[in-house]
Design a protein that fits this description.
There is one protein chain. The protein is of the alpha+beta class. β21 and β22 form a beta hairpin. The longest helix is centred in the first third of the chain and has 27 residues.
């Protein structure tokens, strides 16, 4: 087909072009209808204070569409005053008729703010004021008018004229440039596609500091007016520059030739600039072919393409939204208001609780630099707001209150998880006359009641921690209670001692960090392998004092095993005699000499030879070697210790919720038609299986607000006489009085 089109001549080429491209025009019309079919006039006035700025359409500094033509039939957003006389030409809320439009243009006003279908705040449909005059009747548009269908037909029908006229501008271009025009350009704008040849936009106000040639490309450097910001653009050498060094540029100004990318324009100047660009771009194409279309029709379609009442979630924060989800702006604003009011309440509670207390430590995940700077300082309101800001990495604060340490947990759910199973030491009166008895493990249900209204710290005993330390930790100091020693220093924390600590309500204990357990057999094996393994063996003496005849030529595994198990008492290797006693002494000296014994050393009868807490000197070492225990637990004299708090004062502050981050959304007519609230409309357009499956998974409800879904179901369409305002009325039967015709006397 393409080869035929290229090789054919004149008139036949025009006919083929018409036939091929008319289908594209029809498909564009179909997409326009699909995206706008649910846009119906529903109310008289939405009450918005937003609108669009309308100015004459200029092309090459020539007026293509005058201001009077563009504002005729629109509703003024604010009073329009004569720039010289100061008289009000049009009041806010009034519809601009032909006479008023001409007066405004005659006053040389550059442009005015008017209501627009794009900025109407109704969630479904459009209001009368934002739409203005019905262009077919020259009267205010009627409620129930299907303006979406009218707009789609008004834009789609002249599309065939664009198609049939494109061949007049034919010719061969082999430079690879993007010369999109006519119907393809209109389609590109409505679909918000990225152009092939993109014009770069300045992202800041500033000055072109330098344009540098760099072999095949050029680098444009723009410095901001303040001088503290610099932005660099790389431009292909073949692309024409529209600025020179030293030029002053504004934010959003075009720097190179080409078409503007709407997505980039939205990021630089916002959604309003995109609206203006798309409206003017579409009008330029139609006007170049002599086709006149009112701005209102384009704006109705752009209400769905670049909606102002829908946004895309960029970061869900602490909400139920999902990143990339398209949501209604009014729902999002309501959610944000709830988050802000919740955060204000929580912050007021936190300030009342923490103000005036001394911050001793901070615990959390990630970077805590913002919190660490306040350690040791008295907390004021500003510090508390910085510490507990939304999205903070803090999980706990340790504060000092009246010389007592209080653990402040950030977040209700974390508070419940941390305290579940701990024993409360004092009875607690929860709401609704619920009493939590002392010395009972806290349950999730009880903690849920506590978190509703916790006014003072809870005193709790961490029994799980206490019993988890049993039989594995050693005390680093004597535990005292009322002057009486409950447990001695360097003693193993047994279950009996733990029960005593619990009974006496001991608040904290100090334990040794990482005590050393030495297995004597492993230590001897390590010594033998490092010192005498592989040496030439000349003599072996067994435990009976005899000299075995069959011995290996070198010290191997059998010799090492015999020495460890005591079957061999001495060997001669490389002319040096090694006795088992000498080896044991060397090992003990290396491993435990000068350290403190943490477990008592007992003989075979169970008698204590060396008690725990004894420093191992030469005399103690000899006694230990005589007993030859299997394992020894020791610590360095200057060992590190740590404090384990068993009884804590715990309270919580409510975690502040993080607000969602959103950005405006550009959809294009195809994506907008699929993103509609009606799954029936979406499924009947494209991707039927995907649309229905997604709706089923989400459990969506189709409220049948548009024309298409009602036609599918077989209902009366909600437009015209089928609109709700024209259907919701009640017929009341009125009794008419019987009137009698007077009869004259003569007739009687």
């Amino acid at each position: 087909m393409l080869e035929y089109f290229i090789s054919t001549h004149g008139a036949r080429k025009g006919l083929a072009d018409t036939a091929l491209r008319t289908a594209k025009s029809g498909y564009l019309t179909r997409r326009l209808v699909d995206v706008s079919q649910d846009l119906i006039i529903l109310e008289e006035d939405c009450g918005t204070d937003k609108g669009v700025f309308v100015a004459p359409l200029l092309q090459d500094d020539k007026v293509v569409i005058p201001l009077s033509e563009r504002i005729y039939g629109r509703t003024a957003l604010e009073d329009v005053r004569h720039p010289l006389e100061g008289t009000v030409l049009v009041k806010a809320g009034e519809i601009i008729d032909q006479v008023r439009a001409e007066r405004i243009e005659a006053a040389n006003i550059e442009g005015i703010w008017v209501r627009s279908p794009m900025t109407c705040v109704l969630r479904n449909g459009i209001c009368q004021r934002c739409y203005g005059l019905d262009l077919s009747t020259r009267k205010p548009v009627a409620i129930g008018e299907s303006v979406g269908i009218v707009a789609a037909q008004s834009i789609g029908e002249p599309g065939t004229q664009l198609t049939m006229r494109t061949f007049h501008t034919g010719g061969v271009r082999i430079t690879g440039e993007d010369i999109t025009q006519g119907l393809p350009r209109v389609e590109q704008l409505f679909e918000v596609r990225k152009p092939k040849k993109i014009a770069l936009l300045s992202e800041i106000d500033g000055t072109v500091a330098e344009i540098r040639d760099m072999g095949g490309k050029r680098k444009i450097i723009i410095r901001s007016d303040s001088g503290d910001e610099k932005i660099t653009f790389n431009v292909p050498s073949a692309q024409l520059l529209l600025v020179e060094e030293g030029d002053v540029v504004k934010k959003g100004q075009i720097l190179t030739e080409g078409y503007i990318d709407p997505q980039q324009l939205m990021e630089v100047k916002g959604i309003e600039a995109v609206h203006t660009y798309l409206v003017d771009g579409i009008q330029e194409v139609y006007k170049s072919q002599g086709v006149s279309i009112n701005n209102k029709h384009i704006e109705v379609i752009l209400r769905k393409v670049a909606p102002v009442n829908k946004v895309r979630i960029a970061d869900e924060g602490d909400t139920s939204y999902v990143v990339g989800e398209i949501v209604w702006i009014d729902e999002l604003e309501k959610e944000i208001q709830e988050i802000q009011s919740h955060n204000q309440r929580c912050m007021d509670e936190s300030v009342a609780l923490l103000k005036g207390k001394i911050l001793r430590d901070v615990i959390g995940k990630g970077s805590l630099e913002h919190a660490a700077q306040y350690k040791g300082e008295v907390l004021d309101e500003q510090a508390i707001r910085i510490l507990l800001q939304p999205g903070t990495a803090l999980t706990e604060l340790i504060v000092e209150d009246k010389s007592e340490l209080v653990r402040v947990i950030v977040g209700e759910s974390l508070f419940r998880r941390e305290l579940e199973g701990l024993e409360i030491l004092e009875p607690y009166e929860a709401g609704d006359r619920v009493r939590i008895e002392a010395n009972s493990p806290l349950t999730i249900k009880q903690l849920a009641l506590i978190t509703q209204d916790l006014r003072k710290p809870l005193q709790v005993l961490d029994t799980d921690k206490l019993f988890s330390l049993c039989d594995v930790t050693y005390l680093a100091e004597d535990v005292l209670c009322d002057g009486e020693i409950v447990a001695h220093k360097d003693a193993l924390l047994t279950k009996d001692i733990a029960l005593k600590l619990k009974e006496k309500s001991i608040e904290e204990i100090k334990i040794w960090k990482a005590p050393e357990t030495i297995d004597i057999s492993d230590a001897i094996q390590e010594y033998l392998i490092s010192k005498i393994w592989g040496r030439s063996l000349s003599k072996v003496i067994d435990s009976s004092g005899n000299e075995p005849e069959d011995i290996p030529p070198i010290v191997d595994g059998s010799i090492v095993r015999g020495i460890i198990e005591g079957e061999i008492t001495a060997i001669e290797a490389d002319g040096e005699i090694y006795s088992r006693q000498k080896i044991l002494h060397s090992v003990m000296t290396e491993k435990i000499y000068g350290k403190v014994l943490l477990e008592p050393v007992k003989d075979n009868m169970g008698n204590t030879v060396v008690p725990s807490g004894t420093e191992i000197n030469q005399q103690v070492l000899e006694r230990i070697i005589e007993v030859e225990p299997a394992k020894i637990v020791v610590r360095p004299i200057l060992a590190l210790s740590q404090v384990e708090r068993l009884i804590q004062k715990v309270i919580f502050v409510r975690k502040l919720r993080q607000e969602p981050i959103w950005k405006p959304v550009l959809l294009g007519i195809t994506k907008a038609a699929l993103a509609t609230d009606s799954f029936l409309s979406a499924a009947s357009f494209q991707q039927t299986a995907q649309a229905l499956a997604s709706a089923a998974v989400r459990g969506e409800i189709d409220y049948l607000r548009g024309l298409k879904e009602n036609v599918i179901i077989g209902h009366l369409i909600p437009a015209g006489t089928g609109a709700a305002v024209n259907r919701n009325f009640e017929i009341v039967e009125v009794e008419e009085e019987v009137s009698y015709e007077p009869v004259s006397v003569d007739r009687s």
